[in-house]
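Hi everyone, sorry if this is the wrong subforum. Our group has a chain we'd like a structural model of before ordering constructs, and none of us has done structure prediction before. Sequence below.
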Amino acid sequence: MRRLLLTIAVAVLPLGAAQAQIPGKQLVSGQVRPMLTQSNPNIANGAWCFVGRGLSMLEASADGSQAVISFPEMIYFDGTHYYQLNGQTHLNFATPTSGHIKFKYTTEYPTAVTNPAFSNYTEAAGETANLTVVNFSISFTNGTNPSNCILPVTIKYETE
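Answer:
Right subforum, don't worry. Here is the predicted structure as tokens:
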């Protein structure tokens, strides 16, 4: 009877949904989708953040705790100062979907700007078998609510 129930369960229950996963220690290239976000469009000189279209490279660590990722153009304006954050960054995962992103080569900027939190990290299959779409949101701040800006990031990587 147990075998019959096990056989029925295996046949009826679907296998886990296929998920795209970028293999660790493999460098992949892709394209960033451009995005501009304003924290409050009704405030003159309100905070905004931007990521430009262009080439992105990604390499995850073997254990999945970190990834190195590059951005062609990224700007955060806190209402007073512009921060250019282009180039290579580190995603440091605290959970499978969130952590902090460390922008490199920005030592003249405040830590709140160069080490913001990210959340909602996902990897999903793209339109074809060799495409993986990575999504996450970066929460920029420079210490005050009017300076906050949440930037949704979407990058499509080719894995083969």
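For your construct planning: Residues 1-20 have pLDDT under 50 and may be disordered. The chain has one domain: 19-158.
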